[in-house]
Amino acid sequence: MFPIIRADSPVPIFEQIERYWVFRIATGHPQPGEFLPSVRKLAQKLLIHPNTVVNAYEQLEGAGIITARRGVGMEVTMEAPGICKKRREEMVKLRLQEILAESTQGGMSPTEILRLLRVEIKTREDNKA
Amino acid sequence: MFPIIRADSPVPIFEQIERYWVFRIATGHPQPGEFLPSVRKLAQKLLIHPNTVVNAYEQLEGAGIITARRGVGMEVTMEAPGICKKRREEMVKLRLQEILAESTQGGMSPTEILRLLRVEIKTREDNKA
DNA sequence: ACAGGTGTACTAGGTAGATAGAACACTTGG
DNA sequence: CCAAGTGTTCTATCTACCTAGTACACCTGT
Question: What range does the domain containing B64 cover?
Answer without folding.
Answer: 13-81
